[in-house]
Amino acid sequence: MPETRSTERGYAYELSLEQHELLSRKLDEVRGLVIVSGYRSTLYDEIYQGWHRMDKRSVADAGKATVESIWLSPRIQSTELPLFT
Known about the structure:
This protein is 21% helix and 24% strand. The protein contains 2 helices and 3 strands, in the order αβαββ. Strands 1-3-2 form a 3-stranded antiparallel beta sheet, with no helix packed on it. A hairpin with a 5-residue loop joins strand 2 and strand 3. It starts with 16 loop residues before the first helix and ends in a 13-residue tail after the last strand.
């Protein structure tokens, strides 16, 4: 997601905004449990609305402080998972 980049150097393969939206619709159809990892963004706030977001302070490129996030699909009933302990 371009808006979450601290540098202009992107990934070799990156989804477009439309592909992120399509992926989120497909993930909503999954019968199992889904976890999405990334950085919080306006688009993710919109397309993963209703999912449980957990944030973790971290260090990124060149020691820059950042916050990494995961989104847990609504089918994950318990938010007491020891994911960030």
